Amino acid sequence: MLNEKEHKPILFYIVLVLLLFIITIGGIGAYLSYPFAQKISGNWVSSDQTMNLSSQGQNWELAFPNYQQTNGLTLIYTGVWEAAGVNKYNGSKVGMLSKIDKSLFSDEEIAALQKKSELYTIKTQTDKELTLKYTKKGIEQIQSTTDLNSIVHMTLENLHWDKKKEKLYLNSRYFSNERIEFTLKNEK
What we know:
This protein is of the alpha+beta class. The chain has three helices and ten strands. Strands 1-2-3-4-5-8-9-10 form an eight-stranded antiparallel β-barrel. A hairpin with a 3-residue loop joins β6 (120-125) and β7 (129-134). The longest helix has 30 residues, at 4-33. It starts with a helix and ends with a strand.
């Protein structure tokens, strides 16, 4: 028969193990249920400095400044994040825009872009910038795929409490055969 003194240490260790198990499961559960889009919020830049990803809440914008070596022309994909797994994100409701810096184009070129077209509509316009939103026909004419929802897949890796040490990867053969690495921009 066991005496009381031998029961206390065993009971203590059982309770301790259960407590640690509950805390661990709770921590993992909290991380998994943490608003997924918050994990990648901020401004990210590709390792070759050719792409910028801005993510705020559920919305994101992937920009290609000076698209096809044209100064002042930025091609932009916009959309909404969808969870695709733990630290995996898919773009949905993807649209395509072009932002044009008017100071880098002639008045004739800007006037030609402002004319009505079946390829795009004017989304916004200021004295300095013209933003065009591509129609389905416009996307078909300039992209190899019309299903833009299939081209943006991101994975967050190297998770760290210091977000600047994390890596975000664009996993899409549409843009590159290799994964494209993004790091968080230094905000000042």
